[in-house]
From TrEMBL:
<feature type="domain" description="Ribonuclease H2 subunit B wHTH">
    <location>
        <begin position="65"/>
        <end position="195"/>
    </location>
</feature>
<comment type="function">
    <text>Non catalytic subunit of RNase H2, an endonuclease that specifically degrades the RNA of RNA:DNA hybrids. Participates in DNA replication, possibly by mediating the removal of lagging-strand Okazaki fragment RNA primers during DNA replication. Mediates the excision of single ribonucleotides from DNA:RNA duplexes.</text>
</comment>
<keyword id="KW-0539">Nucleus</keyword>
<protein>
    <recommendedName>
        <fullName>Ribonuclease H2 subunit B</fullName>
    </recommendedName>
</protein>
<dbReference type="GO" id="GO:0032299">
    <property type="term" value="C:ribonuclease H2 complex"/>
</dbReference>
<dbReference type="GO" id="GO:0005654">
    <property type="term" value="C:nucleoplasm"/>
</dbReference>
<feature type="domain" description="Rnh202 triple barrel">
    <location>
        <begin position="5"/>
        <end position="62"/>
    </location>
</feature>
<dbReference type="InterPro" id="IPR019024">
    <property type="entry name" value="RNase_H2_suB_wHTH"/>
</dbReference>
<comment type="subunit">
    <text>The RNase H2 complex is a heterotrimer composed of the catalytic subunit RNASEH2A and the non-catalytic subunits RNASEH2B and RNASEH2C.</text>
</comment>
<dbReference type="InterPro" id="IPR040456">
    <property type="entry name" value="RNase_H2_suB"/>
</dbReference>
<dbReference type="Pfam" id="PF17745">
    <property type="entry name" value="Ydr279_N"/>
</dbReference>
<feature type="region of interest" description="Disordered">
    <location>
        <begin position="202"/>
        <end position="225"/>
    </location>
</feature>
<dbReference type="InterPro" id="IPR041195">
    <property type="entry name" value="Rnh202_N"/>
</dbReference>
<dbReference type="GO" id="GO:0006401">
    <property type="term" value="P:RNA catabolic process"/>
</dbReference>
<dbReference type="Pfam" id="PF09468">
    <property type="entry name" value="RNase_H2-Ydr279"/>
</dbReference>
<comment type="similarity">
    <text>Belongs to the RNase H2 subunit B family.</text>
</comment>
Length: 251
């Protein structure tokens, strides 16, 4: 692993299903993998044409979203626990790598209550703290959208979040609704609903509470763990790409 990069299968914090992530063990830092999809698209690589127009993006993601998945599950036991007993998963054993990420204790203070006994720390999920932290995330997202001059009004209304008579003229509310939707891709549905109430967002009409999936070229979903990306972990990425191109030309 010369580059320090490792593909891992982890639980998607929204659905709980397996998804592919990338960890830079040198920094260390966690990245999610998104895919750009477009039909009838190919790439020119050196002297060959590679069919399939998929383009994968690795973007940084806050590891606290993934840790929340385990903290919420452990909260059902109603007690404080050491973190190495909370972040355990037989299906996704690489989850323990999340515990090696920097400033972990500082991050956990945003979403947990903490106790220390005999110099060992124990944690328990705090819904109240989590909602406050998520509100800050929403506000940061709103600020980023405004700075980038992203027009969200049409997008919010196109999802039928407001009915014809409910369309809000309050621009800030549109931004908050849209930011809430973006953050909801990283948290369980129940927590998303709780956050919506916490932010005092209008409830969508019953007919559109489960809108159809968006058909964007850039997928809103993490890459599912159907293909074994971990086969690249022991190789240099540049070598893998060149070898693949040569193999394609030789056929």
């Amino acid at each position: 692993m010369k580059s320090g990069l490792m593909f891992v299968k982890l639980a998607n914090p929204c659905s709980g299903e397996g998804a592919i992530y990338l960890i830079n063990m040198c920094l260390p830092q966690l990245f999610e993998i998104k895919v750009f999809k477009e039909k009838n698209h190919s790439w020119f690589i050196n002297e060959s044409v590679q069919s399939g127009g998929l383009l994968h993006f690795a973007t940084p993601v806050d590891p606290l979203f993934l840790l929340l998945h385990y903290l919420i599950k452990a909260d059902k036991e109603g007690k404080f626990q050491p973190l190495d007993q909370v972040v355990m998963d037989d299906m996704f054993p690489d989850c323990i790598l999340l515990l090696k990420l920097p400033e972990l204790e500082k991050l956990l203070r945003h979403v947990t209550e903490e106790k220390e006994v005999d110099k060992k720390k124990y944690y328990k999920y705090s819904k109240e703290k989590t909602l406050k932290w998520l509100e800050k995330k929403v506000n940061q997202t709103v600020a980023a959208l405004k700075t980038s001059k992203v027009n969200v009004s049409a997008r919010v209304q196109s999802t039928a979040f407001f009915s014809g008579g409910q369309v809000s003229s309050d621009k800030d509310e549109d931004y908050v609704c849209y930011a809430h939707g973006l953050i909801s891709d990283y948290i369980p549905k129940q927590l998303s609903d709780d956050l919506s109430k916490y932010l005092k967002l209008p409830e969508p009409p019953a007919s559109v509470r489960n809108p159809p999936s968006k058909k964007a070229k850039l997928s809103d979903e993490p890459v599912n763990a159907k293909e074994d990306y971990t086969k690249f972990n022991s190789k240099d990425f540049k070598t893998v790409k060149v070898a693949a191109g040569r193999q394609k030309r030789d056929k």
